[in-house]
Automatic annotation (TrEMBL), chain A:
Domain of life from the UniProt record: Bacteria
Region (Disordered), start-end ranges: 1-21
Pfam families reported in the protein's UniProt record: BPD_transp_1
Keywords for the protein's UniProt record, in alphabetical order: Cell membrane, Membrane, Transmembrane, Transmembrane helix, Transport
Similarity comment: Belongs to the binding-protein-dependent transport system permease family.
Domain ABC transmembrane type-1 as annotated: residue spans: 88-282
Protein name: Sugar ABC transporter permease
Native species: Actinoplanes auranticolor
UniProtKB/TrEMBL annotation, chain B:
The protein's name: Sugar ABC transporter permease
Major subcellular site: membrane
GO biological process: transmembrane transport
Family: Belongs to the binding-protein-dependent transport system permease family.
UniProt xrefs under InterPro entries: ABC_transporter_permease, MetI-like, MetI-like_sf
PANTHER family: ABC TRANSPORTER PERMEASE PROTEIN, ABC TRANSPORTER PERMEASE PROTEIN YESP-RELATED
PROSITE patterns assigned: ABC_TM1 (PS50928)
Keyword set includes Transport: yes
A GO-annotated cellular component: plasma membrane
UniProt cross-references to Pfam families, sorted A to Z: BPD_transp_1
Keywords: Cell membrane, Membrane, Transmembrane, Transmembrane helix, Transport
Organism: Actinoplanes auranticolor
Domain called ABC transmembrane type-1: residue spans: 68-286
Amino acid sequence: MTALQEPQARAPVDTGAPRHSGRRQRHRWVLWTALSAAAVVFVYPFAWLVSASLKPRPEVFDNVLVPRHWAPENYATIWSAAPVFTWMVNSVVVALAAAAAVTVSSAIVAFGFAYFRFPGRNLLFASVIGTMMLPGAVTMIPTYLIWNELGLAATQVPLWASNLFGSAFYIFLIRQFFLGVPRELFEAARVDGAGYWRLFWRIAVPLCKPALIVAFVFELRASWSDLLKPLIYLRDPALFTMPRGMKSILDQFGQAGEAQWEVVLAGAVLTTVPMIIAFFLCQRYFVEGVATQGRKG
Amino acid sequence: MTVRRRETWAAYGFLSPWIVGFLVFLAGPMVASLVLSFTDYDVLTSTAFVGGENYRMLLADPKVRTSLANTMFYTVLHVPLTMAVALGLAMLLARAGRRSAGFFRTIFYLPTITPKVAVGVLFLLLFNGQIGLINEMLGWVGINGPDWTSDGPWIKPGLVLMSAWSLGSTVIIYLAALQNVPRDLYEAAEMDGASPWARFRAVTVPMISGALFFTLIINTISSLQTFDEVYTAFFGSANQQTYGNDAALFYVIYLFQQAFQFLHMGYASALAWLLFLIIVLITLVQVRLSRRFVYYESE
Protein backbone atom coordinates (compact mmCIF):
# COMPACT_ATOMS: atom_id res chain seq x y z
CA MET A 1 0.00 0.00 0.00
CA THR A 2 1.55 3.21 -1.13
CA ALA A 3 -1.33 5.70 -1.17
CA LEU A 4 -1.84 6.08 2.54
CA GLN A 5 -1.65 9.87 2.68
CA GLU A 6 -4.67 11.51 4.25
CA PRO A 7 -7.27 11.20 1.51
CA GLN A 8 -8.94 14.32 0.21
CA ALA A 9 -12.07 12.30 -0.40
CA ARG A 10 -13.28 13.31 3.04
CA ALA A 11 -13.34 16.98 2.21
CA PRO A 12 -16.83 18.38 1.82
CA VAL A 13 -17.88 18.79 -1.77
CA ASP A 14 -18.73 22.51 -1.57
CA THR A 15 -15.42 23.56 -3.15
CA GLY A 16 -16.79 23.38 -6.70
CA ALA A 17 -17.28 26.25 -9.12
CA PRO A 18 -20.33 28.44 -8.44
CA ARG A 19 -22.15 27.38 -11.60
CA HIS A 20 -22.44 23.87 -10.17
CA SER A 21 -23.79 24.93 -6.83
CA GLY A 22 -27.46 24.27 -7.66
CA ARG A 23 -26.72 20.70 -8.62
CA ARG A 24 -24.45 20.23 -5.65
CA GLN A 25 -27.10 21.54 -3.29
CA ARG A 26 -29.51 19.02 -4.71
CA HIS A 27 -26.91 16.26 -4.35
CA ARG A 28 -26.33 17.14 -0.73
CA TRP A 29 -30.04 17.09 -0.08
CA VAL A 30 -30.44 13.64 -1.64
CA LEU A 31 -27.43 12.38 0.30
CA TRP A 32 -28.78 13.60 3.62
CA THR A 33 -32.22 12.21 2.98
CA ALA A 34 -30.81 8.80 2.12
CA LEU A 35 -28.50 8.72 5.15
CA SER A 36 -31.22 9.89 7.50
CA ALA A 37 -33.67 7.31 6.19
CA ALA A 38 -31.08 4.57 6.69
CA ALA A 39 -30.33 5.90 10.18
CA VAL A 40 -34.01 5.64 11.11
CA VAL A 41 -34.07 2.01 9.95
CA PHE A 42 -31.03 1.22 12.09
CA VAL A 43 -32.14 3.05 15.22
CA TYR A 44 -35.81 2.16 15.16
CA PRO A 45 -35.51 -1.42 16.48
CA PHE A 46 -33.73 -0.03 19.57
CA ALA A 47 -36.42 2.55 20.10
CA TRP A 48 -39.09 -0.10 19.59
CA LEU A 49 -37.39 -2.41 22.07
CA VAL A 50 -37.01 0.16 24.83
CA SER A 51 -40.48 1.55 24.29
CA ALA A 52 -42.19 -1.88 24.24
CA SER A 53 -40.35 -2.90 27.41
CA LEU A 54 -42.08 0.01 29.16
CA LYS A 55 -45.60 -0.85 28.02
CA PRO A 56 -48.29 -2.84 29.88
CA ARG A 57 -48.95 -6.27 28.43
CA PRO A 58 -51.95 -5.52 26.18
CA GLU A 59 -50.07 -2.71 24.46
CA VAL A 60 -46.69 -4.35 23.87
CA PHE A 61 -47.43 -4.98 20.22
CA ASP A 62 -49.27 -1.76 19.41
CA ASN A 63 -46.12 -0.56 17.59
CA VAL A 64 -46.59 2.96 18.93
CA LEU A 65 -43.30 4.66 19.63
CA VAL A 66 -44.29 6.48 22.83
CA PRO A 67 -46.14 4.16 25.24
CA ARG A 68 -49.74 5.22 25.89
CA HIS A 69 -49.45 3.84 29.39
CA TRP A 70 -46.10 3.56 31.10
CA ALA A 71 -45.27 0.29 32.84
CA PRO A 72 -41.83 0.59 34.44
CA GLU A 73 -42.94 -2.21 36.77
CA ASN A 74 -41.91 -4.65 34.01
CA TYR A 75 -38.39 -4.14 35.26
CA ALA A 76 -39.44 -4.81 38.85
CA THR A 77 -41.14 -8.00 37.66
CA ILE A 78 -38.04 -9.31 35.94
CA TRP A 79 -35.86 -8.21 38.83
CA SER A 80 -37.85 -10.36 41.26
CA ALA A 81 -38.60 -13.23 38.86
CA ALA A 82 -34.99 -13.93 37.91
CA PRO A 83 -31.60 -13.32 39.54
CA VAL A 84 -30.87 -10.57 37.05
CA PHE A 85 -28.45 -8.77 39.34
CA THR A 86 -26.37 -11.94 39.83
CA TRP A 87 -26.30 -12.50 36.07
CA MET A 88 -25.18 -8.94 35.48
CA VAL A 89 -22.36 -9.29 37.99
CA ASN A 90 -21.38 -12.65 36.47
CA SER A 91 -21.29 -11.13 33.00
CA VAL A 92 -19.24 -8.17 34.13
CA VAL A 93 -16.73 -10.39 35.94
CA VAL A 94 -16.43 -12.89 33.07
CA ALA A 95 -16.19 -10.19 30.40
CA LEU A 96 -13.57 -8.21 32.33
CA ALA A 97 -11.53 -11.38 33.00
CA ALA A 98 -11.76 -12.45 29.36
CA ALA A 99 -10.82 -9.00 28.07
CA ALA A 100 -7.96 -8.47 30.53
CA ALA A 101 -6.57 -11.97 29.93
CA VAL A 102 -6.59 -11.66 26.16
CA THR A 103 -5.16 -8.15 26.15
CA VAL A 104 -2.20 -8.89 28.40
CA SER A 105 -1.32 -12.23 26.83
CA SER A 106 -1.72 -10.99 23.26
CA ALA A 107 0.45 -7.97 24.03
CA ILE A 108 3.22 -10.18 25.41
CA VAL A 109 3.14 -12.43 22.35
CA ALA A 110 2.89 -9.44 20.01
CA PHE A 111 6.04 -7.99 21.55
CA GLY A 112 7.83 -11.28 20.91
CA PHE A 113 6.97 -10.99 17.23
CA ALA A 114 7.58 -7.25 16.94
CA TYR A 115 10.91 -6.76 18.72
CA PHE A 116 12.95 -9.92 18.24
CA ARG A 117 14.53 -11.42 15.16
CA PHE A 118 14.87 -15.15 15.55
CA PRO A 119 14.78 -18.32 13.50
CA GLY A 120 11.26 -19.48 12.72
CA ARG A 121 9.66 -16.09 13.25
CA ASN A 122 7.93 -15.78 9.89
CA LEU A 123 6.66 -19.33 9.96
CA LEU A 124 5.28 -18.90 13.48
CA PHE A 125 3.65 -15.60 12.64
CA ALA A 126 2.06 -17.17 9.56
CA SER A 127 0.58 -19.85 11.80
CA VAL A 128 -0.83 -17.17 14.10
CA ILE A 129 -2.53 -15.55 11.13
CA GLY A 130 -3.66 -18.97 9.88
CA THR A 131 -5.50 -19.74 13.13
CA MET A 132 -7.69 -16.68 12.58
CA MET A 133 -9.56 -18.63 9.92
CA LEU A 134 -10.13 -21.67 12.12
CA PRO A 135 -13.82 -22.23 12.86
CA GLY A 136 -14.46 -22.40 16.60
CA ALA A 137 -16.93 -25.23 16.09
CA VAL A 138 -14.12 -27.66 15.29
CA THR A 139 -12.31 -27.28 18.62
CA MET A 140 -15.48 -26.89 20.70
CA ILE A 141 -15.84 -30.56 21.71
CA PRO A 142 -12.23 -31.43 22.67
CA THR A 143 -11.95 -28.13 24.53
CA TYR A 144 -15.02 -29.09 26.53
CA LEU A 145 -13.46 -32.49 27.26
CA ILE A 146 -10.28 -30.81 28.54
CA TRP A 147 -12.23 -28.65 31.00
CA ASN A 148 -14.32 -31.66 31.92
CA GLU A 149 -11.15 -33.63 32.66
CA LEU A 150 -9.90 -30.77 34.84
CA GLY A 151 -13.18 -30.75 36.74
CA LEU A 152 -13.93 -27.18 35.62
CA ALA A 153 -16.58 -27.91 32.99
CA ALA A 154 -19.49 -26.60 35.08
CA THR A 155 -17.73 -23.40 36.17
CA GLN A 156 -17.17 -19.99 34.58
CA VAL A 157 -13.46 -20.67 34.12
CA PRO A 158 -13.77 -21.99 30.52
CA LEU A 159 -15.47 -18.74 29.53
CA TRP A 160 -12.26 -16.74 29.98
CA ALA A 161 -9.28 -18.94 30.79
CA SER A 162 -8.43 -19.91 27.22
CA ASN A 163 -7.90 -16.18 26.66
CA LEU A 164 -4.75 -16.36 28.78
CA PHE A 165 -2.86 -17.64 25.75
CA GLY A 166 -3.38 -14.78 23.37
CA SER A 167 -5.65 -14.57 20.38
CA ALA A 168 -4.56 -14.27 16.77
CA PHE A 169 -6.40 -11.12 15.75
CA TYR A 170 -5.29 -9.15 18.80
CA ILE A 171 -1.69 -10.37 18.46
CA PHE A 172 -1.73 -9.14 14.88
CA LEU A 173 -3.30 -5.81 15.83
CA ILE A 174 -0.98 -5.02 18.74
CA ARG A 175 2.10 -6.14 16.81
CA GLN A 176 1.29 -3.58 14.11
CA PHE A 177 1.42 -0.87 16.76
CA PHE A 178 4.61 -2.19 18.39
CA LEU A 179 6.30 -2.17 14.98
CA GLY A 180 5.58 1.54 14.81
CA VAL A 181 7.64 2.31 17.94
CA PRO A 182 11.01 3.79 16.87
CA ARG A 183 13.67 1.15 17.43
CA GLU A 184 16.10 3.71 18.82
CA LEU A 185 13.95 3.97 21.94
CA PHE A 186 14.52 0.29 22.65
CA GLU A 187 18.23 0.45 21.76
CA ALA A 188 18.77 3.39 24.08
CA ALA A 189 17.07 1.57 26.93
CA ARG A 190 19.17 -1.53 26.20
CA VAL A 191 22.34 0.57 26.46
CA ASP A 192 21.09 1.78 29.85
CA GLY A 193 20.88 -1.86 30.91
CA ALA A 194 17.14 -2.45 30.64
CA GLY A 195 16.00 -6.06 30.29
CA TYR A 196 13.55 -7.25 27.62
CA TRP A 197 10.61 -7.26 29.99
CA ARG A 198 11.36 -3.62 30.84
CA LEU A 199 11.38 -2.75 27.13
CA PHE A 200 7.97 -4.32 26.83
CA TRP A 201 6.38 -3.01 29.98
CA ARG A 202 7.97 0.43 30.24
CA ILE A 203 8.29 1.45 26.59
CA ALA A 204 6.14 -0.62 24.22
CA VAL A 205 3.01 -0.88 26.37
CA PRO A 206 2.70 2.79 27.40
CA LEU A 207 3.28 3.92 23.80
CA CYS A 208 0.66 1.56 22.37
CA LYS A 209 -2.18 2.01 24.82
CA PRO A 210 -4.77 2.69 22.08
CA ALA A 211 -4.14 -0.73 20.52
CA LEU A 212 -4.46 -2.40 23.91
CA ILE A 213 -7.74 -0.60 24.53
CA VAL A 214 -9.03 -1.71 21.13
CA ALA A 215 -8.26 -5.34 22.00
CA PHE A 216 -9.84 -4.90 25.42
CA VAL A 217 -13.14 -3.38 24.27
CA PHE A 218 -13.44 -5.83 21.37
CA GLU A 219 -13.07 -8.83 23.62
CA LEU A 220 -15.32 -7.23 26.23
CA ARG A 221 -18.07 -7.02 23.64
CA ALA A 222 -17.47 -10.53 22.27
CA SER A 223 -17.42 -12.07 25.72
CA TRP A 224 -20.46 -10.15 26.94
CA SER A 225 -22.53 -11.23 23.94
CA ASP A 226 -21.50 -14.88 23.75
CA LEU A 227 -24.28 -17.41 24.15
CA LEU A 228 -22.70 -20.63 22.88
CA LYS A 229 -20.04 -21.10 25.57
CA PRO A 230 -22.38 -20.36 28.49
CA LEU A 231 -24.85 -22.83 26.98
CA ILE A 232 -22.16 -25.49 26.83
CA TYR A 233 -20.62 -24.93 30.24
CA LEU A 234 -23.03 -23.33 32.68
CA ARG A 235 -25.65 -25.54 34.34
CA ASP A 236 -26.30 -23.70 37.60
CA PRO A 237 -28.52 -20.62 37.05
CA ALA A 238 -26.54 -18.82 39.76
CA LEU A 239 -23.54 -18.89 37.42
CA PHE A 240 -25.37 -17.73 34.27
CA THR A 241 -24.15 -14.75 32.32
CA MET A 242 -26.66 -12.17 31.13
CA PRO A 243 -27.21 -13.64 27.62
CA ARG A 244 -27.58 -17.15 29.05
CA GLY A 245 -30.00 -15.80 31.64
CA MET A 246 -31.79 -13.87 28.91
CA LYS A 247 -32.30 -17.11 27.00
CA SER A 248 -33.86 -18.74 30.06
CA ILE A 249 -36.09 -15.71 30.60
CA LEU A 250 -37.25 -16.05 27.00
CA ASP A 251 -37.92 -19.76 27.47
CA GLN A 252 -39.82 -19.09 30.68
CA PHE A 253 -41.83 -15.97 29.80
CA GLY A 254 -41.96 -16.04 26.02
CA GLN A 255 -44.02 -19.17 25.55
CA ALA A 256 -47.14 -19.09 23.46
CA GLY A 257 -50.29 -18.86 25.54
CA GLU A 258 -49.36 -17.10 28.77
CA ALA A 259 -46.59 -15.10 27.12
CA GLN A 260 -45.25 -12.17 29.11
CA TRP A 261 -43.32 -10.47 26.35
CA GLU A 262 -42.99 -7.22 28.28
CA VAL A 263 -40.78 -9.08 30.78
CA VAL A 264 -38.73 -10.67 28.01
CA LEU A 265 -38.24 -7.23 26.46
CA ALA A 266 -37.12 -5.72 29.75
CA GLY A 267 -34.55 -8.52 29.90
CA ALA A 268 -33.40 -7.80 26.35
CA VAL A 269 -32.92 -4.13 27.25
CA LEU A 270 -30.90 -5.06 30.34
CA THR A 271 -28.71 -7.36 28.22
CA THR A 272 -28.08 -4.66 25.64
CA VAL A 273 -27.74 -1.44 27.61
CA PRO A 274 -24.36 -2.15 29.27
CA MET A 275 -22.83 -2.68 25.81
CA ILE A 276 -24.38 0.53 24.50
CA ILE A 277 -22.86 2.41 27.44
CA ALA A 278 -19.48 0.76 26.89
CA PHE A 279 -19.74 1.64 23.23
CA PHE A 280 -20.36 5.33 23.82
CA LEU A 281 -17.52 5.46 26.32
CA CYS A 282 -14.99 3.92 23.91
CA GLN A 283 -16.56 4.52 20.53
CA ARG A 284 -13.31 5.57 18.91
CA TYR A 285 -11.65 2.28 19.83
CA PHE A 286 -14.49 0.14 18.50
CA VAL A 287 -14.36 1.89 15.14
CA GLU A 288 -10.56 1.78 15.00
CA GLY A 289 -10.61 -1.94 15.72
CA VAL A 290 -13.01 -2.71 12.91
CA ALA A 291 -11.13 -0.52 10.44
CA THR A 292 -7.89 -2.35 11.31
CA GLN A 293 -9.62 -5.65 10.75
CA GLY A 294 -10.32 -4.56 7.19
CA ARG A 295 -6.81 -3.34 6.55
CA LYS A 296 -5.21 -6.71 7.16
CA GLY A 297 -7.10 -8.10 4.16
CA MET B 1 25.76 -17.15 25.40
CA THR B 2 25.87 -14.93 22.34
CA VAL B 3 23.50 -12.02 22.02
CA ARG B 4 21.71 -13.83 19.25
CA ARG B 5 21.13 -16.94 21.31
CA ARG B 6 19.95 -14.87 24.24
CA GLU B 7 17.55 -12.96 21.99
CA THR B 8 16.13 -16.17 20.60
CA TRP B 9 15.50 -17.54 24.08
CA ALA B 10 13.87 -14.31 25.19
CA ALA B 11 11.73 -14.22 22.05
CA TYR B 12 10.40 -17.70 22.66
CA GLY B 13 9.77 -16.68 26.24
CA PHE B 14 7.47 -13.92 25.04
CA LEU B 15 5.82 -16.27 22.55
CA SER B 16 5.35 -19.08 25.05
CA PRO B 17 1.74 -18.19 26.01
CA TRP B 18 0.70 -18.48 22.39
CA ILE B 19 2.71 -21.64 21.78
CA VAL B 20 1.19 -23.33 24.83
CA GLY B 21 -2.29 -22.13 23.88
CA PHE B 22 -1.81 -23.27 20.31
CA LEU B 23 -0.84 -26.76 21.41
CA VAL B 24 -3.44 -27.11 24.16
CA PHE B 25 -6.43 -25.27 22.71
CA LEU B 26 -5.95 -25.49 18.94
CA ALA B 27 -3.62 -28.14 17.53
CA GLY B 28 -4.35 -30.65 20.30
CA PRO B 29 -8.13 -30.30 20.03
CA MET B 30 -7.97 -30.43 16.23
CA VAL B 31 -6.19 -33.79 16.37
CA ALA B 32 -8.37 -34.96 19.26
CA SER B 33 -11.57 -34.15 17.40
CA LEU B 34 -10.29 -36.00 14.35
CA VAL B 35 -9.60 -39.07 16.50
CA LEU B 36 -12.95 -38.70 18.29
CA SER B 37 -14.74 -38.62 14.97
CA PHE B 38 -13.83 -42.30 14.54
CA THR B 39 -15.26 -43.29 17.94
CA ASP B 40 -18.66 -43.37 19.62
CA TYR B 41 -17.54 -41.42 22.71
CA ASP B 42 -20.35 -40.18 24.98
CA VAL B 43 -18.34 -38.96 28.05
CA LEU B 44 -20.13 -41.40 30.39
CA THR B 45 -19.23 -44.85 29.06
CA SER B 46 -15.98 -46.08 27.58
CA THR B 47 -14.93 -45.20 24.08
CA ALA B 48 -15.18 -47.62 21.22
CA PHE B 49 -13.40 -47.24 17.92
CA VAL B 50 -16.00 -47.43 15.16
CA GLY B 51 -13.94 -46.69 12.07
CA GLY B 52 -15.71 -44.64 9.42
CA GLU B 53 -19.14 -45.38 10.86
CA ASN B 54 -19.80 -41.77 11.97
CA TYR B 55 -19.01 -40.50 8.50
CA ARG B 56 -21.28 -43.10 6.89
CA MET B 57 -24.07 -42.10 9.29
CA LEU B 58 -23.46 -38.47 8.55
CA LEU B 59 -23.88 -38.96 4.82
CA ALA B 60 -27.18 -40.78 5.40
CA ASP B 61 -28.51 -38.42 8.10
CA PRO B 62 -31.38 -36.30 6.68
CA LYS B 63 -30.80 -33.74 9.46
CA VAL B 64 -27.28 -33.14 8.18
CA ARG B 65 -28.64 -32.49 4.71
CA THR B 66 -31.38 -30.21 6.06
CA SER B 67 -29.08 -28.22 8.30
CA LEU B 68 -26.43 -27.87 5.59
CA ALA B 69 -29.02 -26.75 3.07
CA ASN B 70 -30.45 -24.24 5.56
CA THR B 71 -27.03 -22.86 6.38
CA MET B 72 -26.02 -22.57 2.72
CA PHE B 73 -29.31 -20.93 1.78
CA TYR B 74 -28.86 -18.39 4.54
CA THR B 75 -25.22 -17.73 3.64
CA VAL B 76 -25.90 -17.32 -0.07
CA LEU B 77 -28.50 -14.64 0.67
CA HIS B 78 -26.96 -13.06 3.77
CA VAL B 79 -23.43 -12.44 2.50
CA PRO B 80 -24.26 -10.65 -0.80
CA LEU B 81 -27.06 -8.67 0.85
CA THR B 82 -24.75 -7.54 3.65
CA MET B 83 -21.99 -6.60 1.21
CA ALA B 84 -24.27 -4.74 -1.19
CA VAL B 85 -26.14 -2.72 1.44
CA ALA B 86 -22.95 -2.01 3.39
CA LEU B 87 -21.20 -0.79 0.23
CA GLY B 88 -24.14 1.46 -0.59
CA LEU B 89 -24.12 2.97 2.88
CA ALA B 90 -20.33 3.35 2.89
CA MET B 91 -20.44 5.18 -0.44
CA LEU B 92 -23.03 7.58 0.94
CA LEU B 93 -20.86 8.11 4.03
CA ALA B 94 -17.78 8.75 1.89
CA ARG B 95 -19.62 11.62 0.21
CA ALA B 96 -20.85 13.17 3.43
CA GLY B 97 -18.75 15.68 5.33
CA ARG B 98 -16.37 14.29 7.90
CA ARG B 99 -18.45 15.09 10.98
CA SER B 100 -21.76 13.84 9.64
CA ALA B 101 -20.04 10.69 8.34
CA GLY B 102 -18.80 10.02 11.88
CA PHE B 103 -22.27 10.51 13.30
CA PHE B 104 -24.02 8.18 10.83
CA ARG B 105 -21.23 5.63 11.07
CA THR B 106 -21.89 5.39 14.81
CA ILE B 107 -25.58 4.82 14.16
CA PHE B 108 -24.92 2.10 11.60
CA TYR B 109 -22.47 0.39 13.94
CA LEU B 110 -24.73 0.36 17.04
CA PRO B 111 -26.74 -2.76 16.12
CA THR B 112 -23.50 -4.78 15.79
CA ILE B 113 -22.79 -4.42 19.49
CA THR B 114 -26.28 -5.62 20.40
CA PRO B 115 -25.94 -9.12 21.88
CA LYS B 116 -27.27 -11.70 19.43
CA VAL B 117 -29.65 -13.01 22.10
CA ALA B 118 -31.42 -9.67 21.98
CA VAL B 119 -31.37 -9.79 18.17
CA GLY B 120 -33.10 -13.17 18.35
CA VAL B 121 -35.81 -11.76 20.62
CA LEU B 122 -36.24 -8.73 18.38
CA PHE B 123 -36.58 -11.02 15.39
CA LEU B 124 -39.39 -13.01 17.02
CA LEU B 125 -41.34 -9.85 17.82
CA LEU B 126 -40.66 -7.50 14.90
CA PHE B 127 -41.26 -10.27 12.36
CA ASN B 128 -44.26 -11.79 14.14
CA GLY B 129 -46.81 -12.66 11.44
CA GLN B 130 -49.91 -11.27 13.15
CA ILE B 131 -48.77 -8.38 15.27
CA GLY B 132 -45.18 -7.61 14.24
CA LEU B 133 -43.99 -4.22 13.06
CA ILE B 134 -42.66 -5.52 9.74
CA ASN B 135 -46.00 -6.91 8.61
CA GLU B 136 -47.81 -3.83 9.87
CA MET B 137 -45.53 -1.72 7.66
CA LEU B 138 -46.06 -4.09 4.72
CA GLY B 139 -49.77 -3.63 5.36
CA TRP B 140 -49.46 0.13 4.78
CA VAL B 141 -48.53 -0.59 1.17
CA GLY B 142 -51.17 -3.27 0.82
CA ILE B 143 -48.96 -6.32 1.23
CA ASN B 144 -50.19 -9.15 3.40
CA GLY B 145 -46.92 -10.23 5.02
CA PRO B 146 -46.11 -13.90 5.66
CA ASP B 147 -45.66 -15.65 9.01
CA TRP B 148 -41.93 -14.95 9.16
CA THR B 149 -41.39 -16.71 12.48
CA SER B 150 -43.54 -19.81 12.09
CA ASP B 151 -44.04 -20.57 8.40
CA GLY B 152 -41.11 -22.80 7.40
CA PRO B 153 -40.20 -21.36 3.99
CA TRP B 154 -40.28 -17.77 5.33
CA ILE B 155 -38.09 -18.27 8.40
CA LYS B 156 -34.73 -18.05 6.64
CA PRO B 157 -35.61 -15.06 4.42
CA GLY B 158 -36.78 -13.33 7.61
CA LEU B 159 -33.52 -14.15 9.36
CA VAL B 160 -31.59 -12.81 6.37
CA LEU B 161 -33.49 -9.51 6.52
CA MET B 162 -32.88 -9.30 10.26
CA SER B 163 -29.17 -10.02 9.76
CA ALA B 164 -28.86 -6.94 7.56
CA TRP B 165 -29.42 -4.89 10.71
CA SER B 166 -25.99 -5.95 11.99
CA LEU B 167 -23.84 -4.98 9.01
CA GLY B 168 -22.12 -2.03 10.69
CA SER B 169 -18.64 -3.57 10.79
CA THR B 170 -18.71 -4.14 7.04
CA VAL B 171 -19.73 -0.51 6.51
CA ILE B 172 -16.76 0.70 8.56
CA ILE B 173 -14.34 -1.52 6.64
CA TYR B 174 -15.66 -0.27 3.28
CA LEU B 175 -15.62 3.35 4.39
CA ALA B 176 -11.98 3.05 5.45
CA ALA B 177 -11.16 1.52 2.05
CA LEU B 178 -13.11 4.16 0.12
CA GLN B 179 -11.33 6.95 1.96
CA ASN B 180 -8.03 5.55 0.71
CA VAL B 181 -8.97 5.69 -2.96
CA PRO B 182 -6.88 8.50 -4.52
CA ARG B 183 -9.19 11.31 -5.55
CA ASP B 184 -7.33 12.02 -8.79
CA LEU B 185 -8.42 8.64 -10.17
CA TYR B 186 -12.01 9.86 -10.09
CA GLU B 187 -11.04 13.22 -11.56
CA ALA B 188 -9.18 11.54 -14.40
CA ALA B 189 -12.14 9.26 -15.08
CA GLU B 190 -14.50 12.22 -15.05
CA MET B 191 -12.30 14.10 -17.53
CA ASP B 192 -12.47 11.10 -19.82
CA GLY B 193 -16.24 11.39 -19.67
CA ALA B 194 -16.85 8.22 -17.67
CA SER B 195 -20.40 7.86 -16.36
CA PRO B 196 -20.95 7.40 -12.60
CA TRP B 197 -21.57 3.69 -13.18
CA ALA B 198 -18.38 3.37 -15.25
CA ARG B 199 -16.43 5.18 -12.51
CA PHE B 200 -17.89 2.78 -9.95
CA ARG B 201 -16.94 -0.23 -12.04
CA ALA B 202 -13.53 0.94 -13.19
CA VAL B 203 -12.27 2.90 -10.18
CA THR B 204 -14.19 2.17 -6.98
CA VAL B 205 -14.56 -1.60 -7.23
CA PRO B 206 -10.94 -2.36 -8.21
CA MET B 207 -9.54 0.06 -5.63
CA ILE B 208 -11.50 -1.43 -2.74
CA SER B 209 -11.41 -5.02 -4.01
CA GLY B 210 -9.11 -6.00 -1.13
CA ALA B 211 -11.71 -4.94 1.40
CA LEU B 212 -14.52 -6.57 -0.61
CA PHE B 213 -12.60 -9.82 -0.69
CA PHE B 214 -11.78 -9.69 3.01
CA THR B 215 -15.42 -9.11 4.02
CA LEU B 216 -16.55 -11.84 1.62
CA ILE B 217 -14.34 -14.39 3.38
CA ILE B 218 -15.00 -13.22 6.93
CA ASN B 219 -18.76 -12.91 6.46
CA THR B 220 -18.97 -16.31 4.78
CA ILE B 221 -17.03 -18.08 7.52
CA SER B 222 -19.07 -16.49 10.31
CA SER B 223 -22.33 -16.99 8.44
CA LEU B 224 -21.65 -20.71 8.10
CA GLN B 225 -21.32 -20.80 11.90
CA THR B 226 -24.50 -18.85 12.69
CA PHE B 227 -25.80 -19.94 16.07
CA ASP B 228 -26.75 -17.42 18.78
CA GLU B 229 -29.70 -15.53 17.34
CA VAL B 230 -31.29 -18.53 15.62
CA TYR B 231 -30.89 -20.78 18.65
CA THR B 232 -32.37 -18.06 20.84
CA ALA B 233 -35.42 -17.69 18.65
CA PHE B 234 -36.15 -21.30 17.79
CA PHE B 235 -34.46 -23.80 20.09
CA GLY B 236 -33.85 -24.83 23.64
CA SER B 237 -37.09 -24.23 25.48
CA ALA B 238 -39.49 -26.89 26.69
CA ASN B 239 -42.14 -26.00 24.14
CA GLN B 240 -39.82 -26.38 21.22
CA GLN B 241 -39.20 -30.02 20.51
CA THR B 242 -35.59 -30.98 20.63
CA TYR B 243 -35.79 -32.37 17.12
CA GLY B 244 -38.29 -29.87 15.80
CA ASN B 245 -37.99 -26.69 13.81
CA ASP B 246 -36.26 -28.10 10.80
CA ALA B 247 -36.58 -24.85 8.88
CA ALA B 248 -34.34 -23.09 11.39
CA LEU B 249 -31.98 -25.99 12.03
CA PHE B 250 -28.60 -24.48 11.20
CA TYR B 251 -25.52 -26.64 11.02
CA VAL B 252 -23.80 -25.50 14.22
CA ILE B 253 -27.10 -25.80 16.08
CA TYR B 254 -27.35 -29.43 15.01
CA LEU B 255 -23.72 -29.97 15.96
CA PHE B 256 -24.39 -28.43 19.38
CA GLN B 257 -27.45 -30.62 19.92
CA GLN B 258 -25.58 -33.79 18.97
CA ALA B 259 -22.58 -32.97 21.15
CA PHE B 260 -24.09 -31.41 24.25
CA GLN B 261 -27.71 -32.53 24.38
CA PHE B 262 -27.41 -36.11 23.13
CA LEU B 263 -23.73 -36.46 24.12
CA HIS B 264 -22.87 -38.01 20.75
CA MET B 265 -19.36 -36.59 20.97
CA GLY B 266 -17.89 -38.87 18.31
CA TYR B 267 -20.63 -38.16 15.80
CA ALA B 268 -20.54 -34.45 16.58
CA SER B 269 -16.76 -34.45 16.00
CA ALA B 270 -17.36 -35.90 12.56
CA LEU B 271 -19.91 -33.12 11.98
CA ALA B 272 -17.32 -30.57 13.10
CA TRP B 273 -14.73 -31.92 10.69
CA LEU B 274 -17.20 -31.86 7.81
CA LEU B 275 -17.86 -28.18 8.60
CA PHE B 276 -14.13 -27.51 8.76
CA LEU B 277 -13.59 -29.12 5.35
CA ILE B 278 -16.49 -27.18 3.86
CA ILE B 279 -15.13 -23.90 5.20
CA VAL B 280 -11.61 -24.63 3.95
CA LEU B 281 -12.99 -25.58 0.54
CA ILE B 282 -15.18 -22.50 0.18
CA THR B 283 -12.36 -20.25 1.35
CA LEU B 284 -9.94 -21.80 -1.14
CA VAL B 285 -12.40 -21.26 -3.98
CA GLN B 286 -12.86 -17.65 -2.89
CA VAL B 287 -9.10 -17.10 -2.69
CA ARG B 288 -8.69 -18.56 -6.19
CA LEU B 289 -11.42 -16.34 -7.60
CA SER B 290 -9.96 -13.33 -5.85
CA ARG B 291 -6.69 -13.71 -7.78
CA ARG B 292 -8.65 -12.64 -10.81
CA PHE B 293 -10.52 -9.76 -9.22
CA VAL B 294 -8.49 -8.31 -6.39
CA TYR B 295 -6.20 -5.46 -7.26
CA TYR B 296 -3.10 -5.10 -5.09
CA GLU B 297 -1.45 -1.74 -5.32
CA SER B 298 2.01 -2.99 -4.46
CA GLU B 299 2.20 -5.32 -7.44
